[in-house]
Amino acid sequence: MTVHEAGIGRHFEDFTVGDVFQHPFGRTISEADNTWFTLLTLNTNQNHFNADFAGRAPYGRIIVNSGLTVALVLGLSVIDVSQSALLNLGWTDITLDHPVFVGDTIYAESLVVEVRESRSRPYAGIVTCRTRGLNQDGDEVISWLRTVMVYRRDAPHDKGYFPQAKSGPMRLPGDAG
């Protein structure tokens, strides 16, 4: 039997300039998602939570809070870009290209635009990606450049965190082992 140590994501050595990662999950935004996020962040723009008010605006309906769109696309990209990161170093060039509405399903993909060694941390490297969010129709709703510091494969920091069971290793039924 082989025990596969806990861990997911990519390490510094897994990134090459020009690679595109189509992140595996999509997420449909519900009215509750938008309302709760808007209230949580104290965003008082009524276009995000007042259907009567938003109905009089040019789009004629509630627009999803752009902060939620940022957070969602960021989250969708973590599995491929920053699951093994130790630091976010920055976001630049954020653009909101198309409105997002309740009921839209958002997907994300990232293009690796720069990879370099870390000068201060030999156990990590720096990766910059252009990430964009797409709705179910393929409209680009948001994009940005994001730079993260990612552990190298041999870095000890992201390994060995899974606890040892006091009862010993798992065994097949009937295995007295």
Blueprint of the fold:
Layout: E1 20-22, E2 27-28, H1 31-40, H2 51-55, H3 66-81, E3 85-96, E4 105-117, E5 124-135, E6 140-151
Antiparallel strand pairs: 1-4, 2-4, 3-6, 4-5, 5-6
Task: Give keywords.
alpha+beta, globular, 6 strands, Thiol Ester Dehydrase, Chain A, six-stranded antiparallel β-sheet, 177 residues
Task: Please sum up the structure shown.
By secondary structure, the protein is α+β, with helices and mostly antiparallel strands. The chain has a domain of 100 residues: Thiol Ester Dehydrase, Chain A.
What can you tell me about this protein's structure?
This protein is an alpha+beta fold and 177 residues long. The chain has a domain at 12-28 and 69-151: Hotdog Thioesterase (Thiol Ester Dehydrase, Chain A, Roll), CATH 3.10.129. It is 18% helix and 31% strand. It has helices at residues 31-40, 51-55, 66-81; strands at 20-22, 27-28, 85-96, 105-117, 124-135, 140-151. Strands 1, 2, 3, 4, 5 and 6 form a six-stranded antiparallel β-sheet that branches. The longest helix is centred in the middle third of the chain and has 16 residues, at 66-81. It starts with 19 loop residues before the first strand and ends in a 26-residue tail after the last strand. The mean pLDDT is 92.
